[in-house]
Amino acid sequence: MLVANRGEIAVRIVRACRQEGIEAIVAVSEADQDSLAARLATDVVHIGPASAAHSYLRVVQIVAGALLTRCDAVHPGYGFLSERADLAEACVDNGLIFVGPTAETIRRGGDKVEARRVARAAGVPTGAGSDAVAGADAAFAVADEVGYPILLKAAAGGGGRGMVRVDGPSELAARFGTASSEAAAAFGDGRMYVERYVQNARHVEVQLLGDHHGSLVHLGDRDCSTQRRFQKLVEEAPATVLSADLRQHLADAAIALGRQLNYRGAGTVEFLVDLDRNDFSFLEINTRVQVEHPVTEMVTGVDIVRQQLRIAAGQPLSFVQDDVTISGHAIECRINAESVHDGFRPSPGTITRWDPPTGDHVRVDSHAFVGYEISPYYDSLIAKLIVTGADRAAAIDASLNALDEFVIEGVETTRDLQRAVLAHDDFQNDVINTRWLEKTLLPAVSSTSHERESIDG
Amino acid sequence: MTSSQDAIKRVVEAFERSDWSEIDVRSGTLRVHLSTGEPSGATAGASTTAPVPSTGATVPDGAADGRVAAHLGVSTIASADTPPIGAHIVGSPSPGIFWRSPQPGSPPFADVGHTIDASATVCIIEVMKLMTHVKAGVSGQVVAVYGENGVAVHKGQVLFAIAPSGSPS
Lengths: 457, 169
What we know:
The structure holds two protein chains of two kinds. Chain A has 15 helices and 22 strands. Chain A is an alpha+beta fold. An eight-stranded antiparallel β-sheet of chain A has the order 13-12-9-10-11-14-21-19, with helices on both faces. Chain A has a five-stranded parallel β-sheet with strand order 3-2-1-4-5. A three-stranded antiparallel β-sheet of chain A has the order 7-6-8. In chain A, strand 1 (about 1-5), helix 1 (about 5-20) and strand 2 form a beta-alpha-beta unit. In chain A, helix 12 packs antiparallel against helix 13. A four-stranded antiparallel β-sheet of chain B has the order 4-11-9-6, with no helix packed on it. In chain B, a hairpin with a 2-residue loop joins strand 1 (about 20-25) and strand 2 (about 30-35). Chain B is elongated, with a radius of gyration of 21 Å. At the A-B interface, strand 3, helix 3, strand 16 and strand 20 of A face helix 1, strand 1, strand 7 and strand 8 of B.
């Protein structure tokens, strides 16, 4: 297996390979030659300089690296090339197994306008909004119909990238052109579409697994509503805010969508649950393993990455839907090397102390160690702390203890912010929404929040 | 044929039937560098499989010098490039990657000879996906640019020298 990724997910995949008796080779940039994944792997292949654009994002280097090291398969992880249909295609063209769905599925799922069309064909509600709009005039018409505020989204965006909230017509006039040209620059595709902005929303997603033999199951749901600028900070499974009815509707919708795409491998269907209307709408489908997959693993006992490997090898799923049961509650905190009190400015540097928590209900997925240098070239995630409990309250308690135990020195981290989230009454009473962190918590914990410009928007 | 020869053959065959312009991968003592000769002046049509003297570790790859980004903190300014006296110096606000243009392929924000406004962006410093626009700070003419596009720079590293308007140049 060629592991075409870095950081904690590369470590996660190498471990899953070892458990499945598969030799893992890790593709490394110059900055990652001594990474934890590289140390754990059978071997490494050097695919270029530190800059991801010249290494992890180059399909040709990944494919050549796999061929040179005589790999049979390529696991793309998340981010980087994981949702690029051309990697899936190049793998197949060169006799390599791509761990993921087909290029066709990735293409249809990744184009947000096409994905909305697929969802409607599967009978899944897509929420008020439009297909791609031809220009600002068409956007005005849709916005008038669904009502402000709206979200203006890039057809090729996703995962919080390429979207902008617009509160009224004059703002739409001012922002449409820039948003479209930024999308063209960032994704090579300037098409935009419009969605109604849900004020009181929860972000809930359903995990899918499909094999080559027509079997498609879901592994329940996750709630990822604790977000800053559409980036998730705390995730949980199951989504306790759902009624039994709504939970079943979401699961059915995810399966219907998966069937429509002939889905195979691991994937996630994301929904927005409107708490005021008690309904839901389709957001997007992610055709890869998700950062927050461990919370689902902890409450179902299913190892999603090992399942990915078995599915890729052509094995049928060893269980059916009725075998999947949810027990207990799991919470994940994404520990990022960022300075919360300085506008979440990234904090690269060398880790001088690293004492992760331990214990029965504690799991830490990380690539960090004492002496590890957090590079400015990649994202700021340094660890995922996953803690389980018999129920949500127990999982919150245990998470708070684990966060207290977690000592990281040398770089600033989001640990204390996550502690503040979990200790807050609103979070404990499960009455938050996707805007809560920014509207309620951050003003309370941080008096200084510098606005910084970002190309991502 | 040994297994490594076979692996190299597979890479070469993949390259030949693709529209790729360059491959450069290395594992253990094997390195394959193939190029159609279009970019970066690499040897036209050549396929080289040269053993690399040492394995693992940090082997600076001479053949790819222009493209290999310097590691954080090791970029230095050549003494010949000492900023002119009286010039306003723009330094990097943080460690990160130095981007001279808003997107690949587009013209740089600021180049030698450009007259720019104090509020103009002269470059972007990318640190862990966060893009910070660095402003000129003074109005004037760009007299020097230090550092290469896309490479790592350290905090405070000198990036631009600007002769303020009205000052003797």
